[in-house]
């Protein structure tokens, strides 16, 4: 990928402004008039819920020794991408631009706001770069001083994220939701070599994803992982919206959706159809991927080296 540019919500893919903007419900019916804005933070009782979860965890009876925690060596798996997201370079700066409005909407006075800190990264079609975006966005957020990130593989069909992290056969999200093999959140979360980044793989089930995501168990799990830590952002790598019904159901549980669009490939009508699949009242951010446009070489080369 040479560059990432942010698409305006009006979805004029032939001439896209370098901006990241949400599409409102009214914009979906009249995309030509969409204006950039930030999502309004939703209200929640974060402190009370966090306290309740902490007490429940402390009072829970011992279930015996857990299996050893999986630790993913990101340097070995992702190579230069980890170093790139740590500070310097054009790619790192692109993701800084992308993450800032997401973080602004997700946190209020430094505390995560449920469900604004739940983000789904998806696309209209496969192959547009949604998993690449989800991973690099998570790496960029993991570089923040005040925030941590939980990356969840919610594409139960293709499981690209799990395979990239060498966790394709590990218990994960689908096993938790199906109550399979005693899987729970604590046993499914995998540590990584970046202390602020943790991963939940897709799990071993490949069928019934829509029904699993529509279940009460999924609603409770989303709320728990959202509220357990006051500094956490949760990113779901979701399936493509027009390839399966899983992603559309998942968007009902999150507050922000990043829709990845491949420049020169995805027609405007297809993008609009994908936006129509997203649950109403969600903040939709459209990201133009694989763009050939470049920022100024002078500023990218000089300032990009200083983060």
């Amino acid at each position: 990928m040479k560059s990432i540019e942010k698409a305006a919500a009006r979805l004029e893919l032939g001439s896209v402004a370098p901006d990241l903007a949400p599409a409102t419900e009214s914009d979906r019916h009249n995309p030509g008039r969409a204006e950039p804005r930030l999502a309004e933070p939703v209200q929640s009782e974060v402190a009370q819920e966090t306290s309740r979860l902490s007490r429940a965890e402390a009072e829970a009876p011992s279930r015996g020794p857990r299996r050893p925690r999986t630790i993913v060596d990101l340097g070995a798996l992702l190579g230069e991408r980890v170093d790139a997201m740590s500070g310097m370079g054009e790619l790192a700066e692109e993701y800084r631009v992308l993450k800032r409005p997401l973080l602004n909407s997700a946190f209020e006075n430094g505390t995560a706001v449920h469900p604004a800190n739940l983000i789904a990264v998806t696309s209209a079609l496969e192959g547009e770069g949604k998993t690449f975006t989800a991973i690099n966005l998570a790496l960029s957020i993991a570089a923040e001083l005040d925030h941590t990130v939980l990356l969840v593989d919610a594409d139960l069909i293709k499981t690209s994220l799990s395979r990239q992290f060498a966790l394709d056969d590990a218990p994960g999200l689908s096993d938790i939701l199906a109550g399979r093999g005693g899987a729970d959140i604590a046993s499914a979360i995998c540590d990584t070599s970046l202390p602020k980044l943790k991963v939940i793989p897709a799990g071993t089930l490949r069928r019934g994803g829509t029904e699993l995501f529509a279940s009460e168990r999924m609603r409770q799990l989303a709320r728990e992982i959202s509220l357990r830590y006051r500094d956490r952002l949760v990113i779901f790598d979701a399936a493509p919206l027009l390839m399966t019904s899983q992603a559309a159901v998942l968007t009902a549980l999150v507050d922000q959706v990043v829709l990845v669009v491949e420049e020169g490939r995805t027609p405007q009508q297809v993008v609009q159809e994908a936006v129509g699949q997203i649950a109403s009242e969600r903040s939709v951010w459209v990201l133009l991927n694989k763009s050939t446009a470049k920022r100024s070489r002078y500023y990218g080369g000089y300032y990009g080296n200083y983060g």
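The chain is about 35% helix and 15% strand. Residues 1-50, 56-67, 296-307 have pLDDT under 50 and may be disordered.
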